[in-house]
Design goal:
The structure is a homodimer of 377-residue chains. With 377 residues, chain A is an alpha/beta fold. Chain A is 33% helix and 17% strand. Chain A has ten helices and 16 strands. In chain A, strands 1-4-10-5-13-14-15-16 form an eight-stranded mixed sheet, sandwiched between helices. A two-stranded antiparallel ribbon of chain A has the order 2-3. In chain A, strands 6-7 form a two-stranded antiparallel sheet. In chain A, strand 11 and strand 12 form a beta hairpin. The interface between A and B is large, with 55 and 55 residues.
Chain lengths: 377, 377
């Protein structure tokens, strides 16, 4: 059997103990929206936490009763008989703190002011997310995850779990990720942020009160993002130099199919995503750098880690290239940790981690089946 | 001796015969600003035309008497004893039609209306530029160039010369260029264009009358452009993850050195470059595709060419990668044309073509010395 988890529903957890961020900012109270799939076993040893990337959220698998078309973003990976088998695992997906899908974030109402947080919402780091997620684990009575997994920014959170709470995670599945962003990665993020920050409708982050949304900036940010998610080859295969109208128009409207695709993706995204959340997510990416506190030594940063690791990369991912995954693998080996590594041949660039791909899914399945034996044996 | 050409001055050519563009648009009259270095020989056989790329202009070498700091953009390449030796060659640089450095362009006053052309300025193609340049050659009495050369978009013009006027160019020097843009290249251009087009200060291209400039859009376009001009490695070497203030600020100001660099480049560019010219230049890049009229056959497109070619690429150029240059070389070989090809090992990405690099300059020097022998013998 290999099916979807079917109908799911979102839950809400409320945390009344103040959370102190890396920046020093304090949030007196916050809420996290989450979903769970499968059943937590008696000794609560079969839980997997799925961490999301830049534009992700808690709706990871299945669909809602009243919206069958709204399928979770990693549905192909999670379900009965799927690589993350919900007949064996209890899977948790959440919307990160600072998000815009129900968890407390910049667009939430600040109870102290009665207005959206906006610019006053703290800049969140990967470490802060792990702390907020640890409290959710506490609430669910999970002292140790069978695995924490994620792709891209989600993979950074999974790795951070093994650094912040080494005793609370048995396996880390770090997919299409990196030990830190390169200057080029930061540069792309900075252009995206500047598109938003300089949009006159941004109003310094407090656009909510002005009844406007910095659509132009968000749209540009997403268009640019999409270029970095795809591979040059994938774009060439999918769009090439095809002209939408079959001939050149000699104007600045949409001419090439790739332009049509990008603008469509940009418009779609700008219609629902929060601009402040976008800024915050890109900053969390830029900041992630476990080696920083160890004078640049990633080996020393991972010395505390006790988890086993599965590290996966994709050949055409130029955003977080296989070289970056190999850096992680090297560090884990230097620390005598158990690590499995696979470099998956895929044409889909960074986006590959979201795709249904036989070799990729088989590697995930085999690794997770092995984990399942640890608690079912 | 290897020196600069020294003091130079710009000249202006006026063309009163209407020019019909590929788009069908007609410009009744236009002006081109140009500079020349060296001396045209008696039979006018030693002329080299230098075509510029996106943000280039006619000031290619030397400096102005009243502005010694304003050195031409390819000064390291051109001068007495330099690879393009002005003791042997008569070198011409011009500002392309549609530019913003003195030649007729969107910011010029349309004599018919007394206002800047703005949105009414025609979209210009590489073929149109070659026609406008051919008229300049006519004016200077040059029936055949010893060489037409350029990097990037300039290389496209050099190649187009051999297609539009095969009998008028003996050598084509096509550097860091491509037979057409990929979908990814177009995608980057489209994001840059959208940044400008959606800037509220753009006013549909007629911002001149509103006394404003779409600075935000131009700035974003240039920031993005810079990422594609540099290599990942060059950025890592130059900026890495260095923090400007030495520590994280947890805000959306400049934190990493790469952000400081990009914003500085963006601001500098937005202060002088014309937004409509930027749009027009990126469109010319997108449109260039000699194979299009030959059902995708680049070989057939180059069947008319009679020139000898020097094709150069740079190992870390991911904008116009060596693979793209090899496509050009293959096509030239299929057409039994003389072609020399060198792939230069450089860490500087696409920008390499503007840099002083020993191997690169030596290849240029040797090739051009050979050309010089053709007319001095």
């Amino acid at each position: 059997m290999n099916t979807s988890v079917g109908i799911v529903y979102a839950q809400r957890a409320i945390f009344d103990t103040p959370l102190t961020f890396r920046s020093g900012a304090v949030l007196p109270r916050y809420e996290l929206v989450y979903e769970t799939y499968g059943t937590l076993n008696a000794d609560k040893s079969n839980a997997i936490l799925v961490c999301h990337a830049l534009s992700g959220h808690h709706h990871v698998a299945g669909h809602y009763a009243d919206a069958p078309e709204n399928v979770g973003w990693w549905d192909n990976m999670i379900g009965p008989g799927r690589p993350v088998d919900t007949d064996k695992f209890f899977v948790i997906g959440l919307n990160n703190l600072g998000g815009c899908h129900g968890s407390t974030g910049p667009s939430s109402i600040n109870p102290e002011t009665g207005k959206p947080y906006g610019a006053s919402f703290p800049v969140v780091t990967v470490e802060d997310w792990v702390e907020s997620q640890a409290r959710l684990a506490d609430l669910l009575g999970i002292t140790q995850f069978a695995a924490v997994m994620g792709g891209s920014l989600g993979g950074m959170q999974a790795m951070q779990w093994s650094l912040s709470h080494p005793e609370r995670v048995r396996h880390v599945l770090a997919i299409a990720t990196a030990p830190h962003l390169t200057a080029e990665n930061i540069a792309f993020n900075d252009v995206a942020r500047n598109a938003i920050l300089t949009d006159p409708d941004f109003h310094g982050g407090d656009f909510y009160q002005h009844g406007v949304v910095p659509t132009r900036g968000l749209r540009l940010a997403r268009m640019l993002g999409h270029i970095t998610y795809l591979s040059d080859d994938a774009m060439a295969d999918k769009f090439g130099r095809s002209l939408r109208a079959g001939k050149l128009g000699y104007n600045y409207g949409i001419e090439f199919e790739i332009e049509s695709y990008l603008r469509y993706q940009g418009d779609k995204f700008a219609a629902y995503f929060d601009a402040n959340t976008y800024l915050l997510m890109t900053k969390a990416l830029d900041y992630f750098d476990p080696a920083r506190e160890f004078k640049g030594s990633l080996d020393k940063a991972f010395a505390v880690s006790r988890a086993d690791f599965l590290v996966l990369s994709f050949t055409t991912d130029w955003r977080f290239s296989p070289d970056r995954s190999r850096e992680i693998v090297q560090t884990l080996l230097h620390n005598h940790l158990n690590v499995s590594y696979a470099e998956i041949a895929s044409t889909h660039g960074h986006d590959s981690f979201l795709m249904e791909h036989e070799h990729y899914h088989e590697v995930m399945r085999v690794y997770l089946d092995r984990i399942a034996k640890e608690f079912s044996a």
